[in-house]
Amino acid sequence: MPSPLRPKSKSSESNPTFKAMRMCRMGVEVHCAEFLGKTLLIGREDGLYALDTSVSDNRMLPLSGRKYSQLQAIDDMGLLVSQSGKSKVVAVHYASPSRKFEKGQRFEVETNCRKIRGTESSRYFTIAKRGASIYLCICIAQSVTTLKWAAHPLNKFMKIKVVHASEDILTAEVVEHSHDDAKLYVGTGSGFKSFDLQTSETVGSIDFPSISVERLGKPIRAIHMVEAIVFCYQDMGIIATAAPQSDQQTKSVHWRSPLTFASKLGEQFLVCGSEFVVNIVDASTRKVVHVFETKREKVLALRLLGCVENRLFLLVEEEKDGNWSSSVIHIQQDI
Known about the structure:
This protein is mostly beta strands. The chain has helices at 107-110, 213-216; strands spanning 5-8, 17-26, 30-36, 39-44, 47-52, 61-64, 68-74, 79-84, 89-94, 114-115, 124-130, 133-140, 143-150, 156-164, 169-178, 181-188, 191-196, 202-205, 219-224, 229-233, 236-240, 250-254, 261-265, 269-273, 277-282, 287-294, 299-308, 311-320, 323-334.
């Protein structure tokens, strides 16, 4: 079955090429999805399901009747972090990427689910893996709780900082500049601020004097690349090659459409998504190397499910002949 995304190739032969395929289509609302090894976990309105992508049979295996809103795996640690239930509590599951799920198993029991205290009514969470360090940021109302993974014998996330804001928090990301310099970047309606995770200090607002707040738009996400931080705003992006408070110059990236989501794809590319279009941008050259455009007459919504290494997963909600459906789209660089 053809994908609802149409790749538009660029003329330069040096540009990478990407392939898009539809992994599955469902007639129910999808809230999240994540890969655990070769198993695609899908959080739907009616519960959690598993799709084994290593076989041709595309039947889904029901795992839980619980409503999952967010899933993110840390494969090399055998961890899965989730947000679920009416209270949207955040929990940690222990699940190996090679895990095979079977019918009749209770997912929460089989993965030794451990809820994190005080995370009821969470809005969302983000995970940052920097070398041996794993940070978990949980946004609750107008605050962000940052936790760091403590290895054996504790084997759990430990709270290291709580940041409060006077307005809704739109995004929160941890960037570890070095082993003793980790900062939390928080985006609100008034812009980005950075906080030192080693001390109680607020480093300050992220300002770009030559660009007005009106031109930038609201913050979408701060993304840590190999040698830079990309501050993604609704209307443009700012690439800082070092800590924003340094004297080094920054570079700007202009989006073709207002940004609704952003992510990192591999070590080189940015995923910049809008209402109907997804651009893949080379962060080093600031050039769009590939464009995926939806069929606007059919698509109702386009959302990011996640990026796993060099694989991008999107959720496309469509309507055709009065019938509504959700599709999980897999986009991967053609190497």
